[in-house]
Amino acid sequence: MAAGRPGPAVDLLAPLGEQAERIGGVRVEREIIQDTYARALVEAGRPRQAADLLHHCLTHRRHHMYETFLLAPAPGADGPRARTASDPL
Q1: Cα(88)–Cα(83) distance, rounded to whole angstroms?
Q2: Which end of the chain has a smaller Cβ tally under 10 Å, C or N?
Q3: How confident is the prediction along the chain (89 residues), in pLDDT tens digits per residue?
């Protein structure tokens, strides 16, 4: 992140900020930009701005269906567990 200098990273990522959707590409790439920007804000001593950005991201990101699948308890299980490659789809 700007060679260990979060201030310049913030300056580089600020124009993207909450508008990463406009860049295009796949959603994961846009989320990486937003999350990197939030991390740079925290490391640059601007945690309130990072919290605002993350709140915006979390309230505007669409939920991935596979997240529900991964977090759901297996049938007959007492609670959530990590899925394995041998689990049926």
Answers
A1: 9
A2: C
A3: 667 778 888 888 888 765 666 776 777 777 888 888 889 999 999 999 999 888 887 777 766 666 666 667 777 655 555 666 666 65
